[in-house]
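Dear colleagues,

For the upcoming journal club I promised to circulate an example of a predicted protein-ligand complex. I picked one with AR6 because it came up in last month's discussion. The inputs are reproduced below in full, followed by the predicted structure.
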Amino acid sequence: MERIEIFKGDITTLKVDAIVNAANKTLLGGAGVDGAIHRVAGKELLAECHTLNGCNTGEAKITKAYNLPCKFVIHTVGPIWYGGKNFEEDLLTSCYKKSLELAVNNNIETIAFPNISTGVYGFPKNKAAVIAISEIKKFLCNNKSIKKIIFATFDEENFKIYQHNLA
Ligand code: AR6
């Protein structure tokens, strides 16, 4: 538990080894946290993303962070919520798992996650938080190289949900 933290605010301000981006399959930018990350990182991030050939839902890819204060950006594509019968929960679990595997393989020790899929993609916020927290706790039990995982909440509702679920 001491390796898990909640932060409320803009993930692009965090000086961690990696921040995770809630991207779309093109990896070529968008609104929400994706837009904020590309705005701060600058055009070089978009140029590197152009070389990646997109990313499937539930998968993750890593880039440098350019003008961001972190070292890497891990881009993952969350599921669009269609009511829960299209493997949305498994795909969201996979986003956290694949992002953490990439982090470990790149010697990342500190990492911040946004609340993947809970904005434009419409995943129910509490359900998403329960999945994120349980996957991360499971991962930390089996991994000692990750020193800190930050849940970067942005809206008040998610902040309260994480406070409640981590209490
Ligand atoms: N820092 C941290 N969290 C943020 C920030 C920020 N600067 N801005 C928004 N959030 P969303 P999704 C929160 O919509 O649902 C994009 O267009 C926000 O409050 O960014 O996975 C992509 O290109 C919410 O809780 O991502 C995709 O097309 C969370 O980030 C699509 O949106 C996720 O909201 C992905 O949708």
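Two points we might discuss: The pocket of AR6 is lined by residues 10-12, 22-24, 30-34, 36, 78, 114-121, 152, 154-155, 158 (CB under 6 Å). The first helix runs from residue 32 to 41.

See you all on Thursday,
B. R.
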